[in-house]
Design goal:
Length: 534
């Protein structure tokens, strides 16, 4: 076939019509700055032009260290579209891990917000591999720094014309690092084709009941932009022409004001962020503005108790699932045909599960011999997947890559059951599973049950070594109001009586803590909880 019929699945071609089709649609950064799509893409061109002038070449890795801002959004587009690689640095890492990931990723240039500059200056002798620092501030035109060579963001973003190349779709577009809950963080890379296909699938996946996200819904995404492409939503939103609101540094008061003032109708977040919002002492003042808010929860299981509290404020929540290695979306808990005639309680129960695979995801739940487990809602196996947007492997780590892709399928390390109607329910992480008497106790099912007790704010279940049984479960609970361990046991006994949990699943210990330790991506840090065991 002639080359003229080739079409590269790259970001330039994905967004070729966006500035014209949605020219007046707004992108808002808090109450700081507002722009339109057409002007935004002019700035994207300007950033690419400026980066090129200071020496960024195709294949160079450009790091970004920032909160969720419009400048970050510009880099999301400009860096990969010019053929460079965008490294979204995890700003919640300690300084030593920030250095490790930047060095490991082979970063050459860095775009950095002023408030992160002092940390980098303190360790500037470590960053001798950086060829240029692009600095900016919300509050002043220039940022003074000893980092060098340095460039002011506003100075380099001037020429708003740049001819983006028609890149081969297999060109690497992004790199970021896993949360590093076990060992050092691992780098994962994604190509333009990966992001292109993921964007299409995500746009399809949120366009069904019970959320039915449409063009008129204003977006406020509370997934950090350093975390798995902010779940790919910055790309999907601009492809579909949605008004996009960026919150900067996360603050519950600011979030609630944005929901109110900007008529926010769609968000995505991890459960801990939703918990913080629903625990706000001023929440009742915003009740009318919360009605009709549609929220996708990922990163960790959506506790039933949290979903019920959200529902009481008119917020629709649904579960979704993916991981760093999968860009991330694999499943979302929209309604399939099996739920058409189901009652509302049944629909609600399935809306907080892991969900059903989105288009182009081939998902299996397998046993140790890589055979599919029965779709009976009881047989536990590991989720493995195929999809056109999965990472090809861990950056500069062939051994871990081989483990990830053993048997020709990407192994998620998540244990789940598959129901007869096609819905998936994750019951545990393989590394977090409680194995007692040779059988798994599904900690996520147990956490879900405990979450329904009034007074439970956050809950995490881990295994404690036991001489006879191997492990026994321990529940760590953050209270939202006074409760005692007896209240928890009475609550769980009721669940046992109706068959929702088994007697031997009930935790041996209940431990009340003031706050839940979190990973850099907002999940309960079970590694830290294990340190609290006596």
């Amino acid at each position: 076939m002639s080359d003229k019929f080739d079409f590269n699945l790259n970001l330039r071609n994905l967004f070729s019509n966006t500035p014209r089709n949605f020219s007046d649609t707004e992108i808002l950064y808090k109450n700081k700055r507002k722009t339109t799509y057409s002007k935004f893409f002019q700035k994207v061109n300007g950033l690419a032009s400026g980066l090129s002038e200071i020496g960024v070449k195709q294949g160079d890795t450009v790091a970004v260290i920032d909160w969720d801002t419009d400048k970050y959004m510009e880099a999301y587009y400009a860096v990969p579209m010019m053929g460079a690689i965008l490294h979204t640095v995890n700003i919640r890492y300690p300084p030593e891990l920030i250095y490790y990931t930047m060095n490991h990723a082979e970063d050459k240039y860095v775009i950095v917000r002023d408030e992160f500059v002092p940390i980098l200056e303190k360790n500037r002798q470590l960053f001798d591999f950086i060829k240029g620092w692009v600095v900016y501030s919300d509050d002043s035109e220039t940022v003074s720094t000893s980092l060098g060579p340095n460039y002011q963001y506003n100075d380099i973003v001037k020429n708003e014309k740049y001819d983006f190349p028609d890149l081969d779709e297999n060109t690497v577009a992004t790199i970021f690092y896993t949360s590093g809950t076990t060992g050092l963080p691992k780098g994962v890379t994604f190509t333009h084709k990966n992001l292109f296909m993921h964007t299409l699938a995500l746009a399809n996946g949120i366009n069904f009941a019970p959320i039915n996200v449409g063009r008129t819904d204003n977006f406020l995404i509370l997934v950090p932009m350093f975390h798995v492409h902010s779940w790919g939503i910055p790309y999907m939103a601009l492809m579909n022409g949605n008004r996009y609101v960026l919150p900067g540094k996360y603050d519950v008061g600011t979030i609630l004001e944005l929901v109110k003032n900007e008529n926010i109708k769609f968000s995505a977040m991890v459960p801990s962020i939703l918990y913080m919002i629903l625990s706000s002492p001023n929440l009742e003042e915003y009740r009318e503005h919360l009605k009709g808010w549609k929220v996708v929860i990922g990163g960790a299981a959506l506790p039933r108790g949290l979903a019920l509290k959200a529902k009481s404020f008119g917020i629709t929540t649904i579960g979704a699932y993916g991981l760093s290695e999968t860009a991330p979306l694999l499943t979302i808990a929209i309604y399939n045909d099996a739920l058409k005639k189901a009652d509302e309680e049944t629909k609600f129960n399935y809306s907080i599960t892991t969900g059903i695979p989105v288009p182009m995801v081939n998902l299996r739940v397998i046993d140790k011999d890589m055979k599919d487990v029965p779709a009976d809602g009881k047989s536990i196996g590991e989720i493995v997947v195929h999809s056109p947007w999965l990472t090809s492997g861990y950056f500069k780590d062939p051994q871990k890559t081989e483990e990830l892709w053993r048997g020709g399928w990407l192994h998620t390390g998540d244990l789940a059951v598959i129901h007869q109607n096609g819905y998936i329910s994750i019951v545990d992480r393989e590394k977090d599973a409680v194995k007692s008497g040779g059988e798994f106790i599904p900690s996520l099912v147990l956490e879900n049950a405990i979450s329904e007790l009034k007074g439970v704010g956050e809950v995490a279940v881990i295994g404690k070594p036991h001489e006879k049984w191997g492990e026994r479960p321990v529940a760590f609970i953050v209270r939202s109001e006074p409760i005692k361990d007896g209240d928890v046991y009475d609550h769980l006994n009721k669940f046992m009586d109706v068959g929702r949990i088994q007697k031997w699943w009930i935790p041996d210990e209940i431990v009340f803590i003031d706050s839940m330790p979190k990973t850099s991506t907002g999940k309960a840090d079970k590694k830290e909880l294990r340190k609290l065991l006596k």
